[in-house]
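Issue 218. Parser rejects a valid record. Input:
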Amino acid sequence: MELVKQLETKRTNATLLKAIFKGDNLPENLIEKENKITEYLPKRLAYVYMGDRTAVDYDTVYDLAVNLGYNAARDYQIDLSSFVLVEKLTLAEVIDAFTKGINFAAAKLYNKKTFTKKENKNNVTLFLEQPTEEAKKAFNKASILIDAQNWARNLGITAPNDLNSEQLADIVAKDFKQYKNLTVKVLERKEIEKLGMGLLLSVNRGSVYEPRVVVIEYKGNPASLEKTVYVGKGITFDSGGYNIKTGRYMLGMKYDMSGSAIVAAAMKAIAQLKPETNVSAVMCITDNRVNGDASLPDSVWTSMSGKTVEINNTDAEGRLVMADGLYYGAKNLHATRLIDVATLTGAMIMALGETYTGTWATTDKAWNDISKAAKKQHELIWRMPFDDDYERFMKGSLVADLKNTDLTGMGGSCSAAMFLKEFTDGVEYIHLDVAGTNEQDEKPMFAMVKTLTELAL
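Output the parser choked on:
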């Protein structure tokens, strides 16, 4: 399956696929089962039965597009206009759903199989006879967003022996040279030490690879002092450190760098869509391994902010690297709003499963802004609470300002969010825990690329 790269304005030899609904004048022998396709091949025509119009929405069309992207029985040319529902599903939304859905399924992601099942060579294209400027803009935006998401998905699924901290930073620096409106700075160990990022460095102690902090900046409105800074967790593999993960719980930990890939992917899309705003991203990158000098439980480390942290769980390393990244965003990049993205807590999956991204916001305005962006991009988020009660245990250290985890076993995602909030220097703050929505059944999903881009727009 090939990616959809343009809108077709003329009929091709592919079978034209049209939507048909309950109550329409149905052709003979049509299968009246939702999402079932009936083909009339002598006419090079096919209908997909969508059922009752009132039950069809954006998600219905997107799911159909993904399914066609994986399983198209032949070459289809989608008649986009036939899916439009007056006052319910606009042409722009239909274009958006099909472009994103097909290209999500058709993405060529990292794979080292020496043999595989036969690839589906059938292609799905999009047909619109006389596209308006609005239609062209909808297609262009959707293409940019899904390409950025797929770029992040590809990084996420890559094996950790092919993507260490040094390689990830190098990939971003080289790839982003194509965007002349982005500046990229890669901080190496000496610069990280000079900044006093003791928490990030503590996690890196067990690694054979060097830590990296990648700073990406976009200035779409130089006259404004407002700036949003995205901070992404970039743990290229998480063994748990001395609090080592056991058995199957270590599987999938290559995805622990996803937050950093998500914020970088958002910057990739922002560079192409060119909003009139200022946005930066900070990727905090290392792995979390065990060697003779790795950080020990009971150790105390000093953060960039000057706050000290007692380590009562080396497997709660993500919040450590993020703490230094958040403070860097607040102090060195002068953020007026901080947003972080992290596969942070297993407790998040227990709370919201794989359906919603847990979202914390220090102000109602911040929540309303990101909620509006998420709805526009059809990504599900759920507001979670900041509350001092979640931090009481962590503030009970006898030897440091904070412990890095709450060992009560209650509200683990909320206590992690409260820990991070300590390092935001009072800047308006949104925390996104994508532990459940980032990958599902080992497959990379990478929620929030589209929402973060929409928020900038």
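Fixed in the parser; the record now loads. The radius of gyration is 24 Å.
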